[in-house]
# Entry
Amino acid sequence: MAAVWTWTTTLLKITDRSALQAALVELGPWAIVVLGLSAGVYQPLGPDVFVISSSLIGIPSGQAAVLAALATAGGASFGYALGAGLLGPVLGSLLRRRAAAVAKVRTWLARRGLWVVALAGFSPVPLTQVSWAAGGLRMPFSRFVAGLFLGLVPRFFLEAVFAGVLRRWLG
# Structure
């Protein structure tokens, strides 16, 4: 935490544009990782802005896309674990009378949940709720991870391509 505070105060003191750009190049990948890790746990905002602006500040956009996909998948997996550990027992006790309906939803998630997670990973739907729900309803973890990568990889690589086009356009 002290390192983040030091970086923040350093950024606030910089007035030279080249020094600011150098600091952002150093800190940019860390911002992508922090936002990606937190997106699947509690935050509705992902690292998209950093992926798109990465090439403008000197970070290779492909590297930013890979970092964002891996960090967001890691954060979503942690959200899945929280959902399984915290939400699962609560849902089990609350929905005990609806055991047949819960079993039906779990079966549906086992069959089609991969596409639900892929759509959530690709779209602006907050991944937090999907991650927690998938864990709480015991969606198979391997299908959850496969769905994450099916959604996140195209999303971040399209943003990386857009970042490259934007850099060429801005000149």
User: Anything to note?
Assistant: Residues 2-170 form one domain. The chain has one domain: 2-170. The mean pLDDT is 80. Helices lie at 2-13, 17-39, 48-57, 61-94, 99-122, 127-136, 141-170.
